């Protein structure tokens, strides 16, 4: 149980630090969030917990493919924020991201990469 609490504390600290930095400096906050800190922490936790190398490698592999269809959200959201409220912009961006992911998964399936569980 102590290990799980340690994981929560370290992981949540990274997110809180990133959001606090974003309050002070847009670019620095965005840079910190854009870094794959959660992925790196997850791979560290998997390694420390003695998960097989194949599982850790698969995590990195699928993370790459899952990130690509989410990128349009970071272009669409700021544009929508100029016209709509935060929540409406976030909702529309999220729906677009889900559609992009679904279409991307259909495309990759043609190449033997199955993203859906």
UniProtKB/TrEMBL annotation:
Domain of life assignment: Bacteria
Keywords assigned: Membrane, Transmembrane, Transmembrane helix
Transmembrane regions: 28-48, 60-80, 86-108
Protein name: DUF3147 family protein
Organism: Alteromonas oceani
Source organism phylogeny: Bacteria, Pseudomonadati, Pseudomonadota, Gammaproteobacteria, Alteromonadales
């Amino acid at each position: 149980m102590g290990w799980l609490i340690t994981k929560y504390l370290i992981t949540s600290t990274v997110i809180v630090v990133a959001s606090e930095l974003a309050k002070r400096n847009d670019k620095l906050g965005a840079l910190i969030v854009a870094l794959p800190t959660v992925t790196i922490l997850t791979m560290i936790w998997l390694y420390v917990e003695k998960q097989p190398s194949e599982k850790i490698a698969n995590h990195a592999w699928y993370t790459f493919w899952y990130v690509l269809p989410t990128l349009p959200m970071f272009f669409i959201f700021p544009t929508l924020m100029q016209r709509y409220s935060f929540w409406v912009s976030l909702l529309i961006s999220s729906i677009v991201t889900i559609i992009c992911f679904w279409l991307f998964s259909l495309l990759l399936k043609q190449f033997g990469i199955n993203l859906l569980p």
